[in-house]
Amino acid sequence: MRRQRNSFKTLLILLIFPLLLLAGCGNRSASTESTNTSEKTNDDSKDLVKVKQVTNWFAEPEHGGNYAALMKNFYKDAGIDMTIEPGGPQISSTQMVASGEADFGIVQADDILLARDQGIPVVAIGAIFQVNPQAILYHADQNIKDFSDLNGRTVYTAPGVGYWEYIKKAYKLDKVKEMTYNGQLTQFIRDKKAATQCYITAEPFSLKQQGVETKYLLIHDSGYQPYANVIFTTEKMIKENPDLVKRFMEATIRGWEYYKDYSDEINPFLQKYNPDLTIEAMKFGAEQQKDFIYGHDAAEKGIGYMSKERWLTLQKQLIDLGLIKKKEDINKAYTIEFLPNK
Fold this sequence. Notes:
342 residues, alpha/beta, D-Maltodextrin-Binding Protein, domain 2, five-stranded mixed beta sheet, SsuA/THI5, NMT1/THI5 like domain protein
């Protein structure tokens, strides 16, 4: 089952950031590990720059373009010997990138602002999802029309995360029984009146396979709209290796352009890194996420685009919720200069 891909894990690692800096004093400009490399190798690999990126979960369609760039050698074309390390419940991409253990990572947009508020110098360089596929899932036979209808119900979610704090405040949810989401759906299945966090690219499909019909309220529709699967690096990487950052992003976006039309080709490659995910589930996820990645602003301005207005709105929401304290120059938190044609 899915984990909470948001700020809960970031809040935990913020407390140990000084230790991360010490651990990262021996920072390397490229990864020395080779856990996940392209299927193809060549004699020129010694001339490539070794780079590691860490995702925010096990390999799945939400990372399809990154793996497409690996499989199709787009990273090698850009002079990069790429390692992709899948995330997981015990892995923080913020921690790994901040400490120098990885060069690039994937988080949610609010994770970037939470980290920077604590002095962690990470910078967003592209947003794969224009619309976050996270949602509140409920049984299809329940009379739920909007978030205010969650009052009086049990809701499984991660405590203290931005979207849930926002929804509780905006929709006056003072009668909700909050339960900590643990990645399992057993209790949700049993309790017809319960609701749970989910990703619409995954849980609706897996539950339907079990005979459970569901509907959902998209978090984006609540008014809380952080970009999802945001690719990030450090201020140091941008300052010292801007050309590498540019080549990395161009190859990654090229991978996402390829995955749009050829996901059926890439999904078996994804499955090698996540055998528990079926091809049918990946096909469902790839179709569900298309508009969220390739539509909206990305349709006109390209995959990965981020607007200043969205970042400013998110910053204000986090300040209003008391989750961040400082209102720093938002231009320091993100940049689109490394996206293709920028």
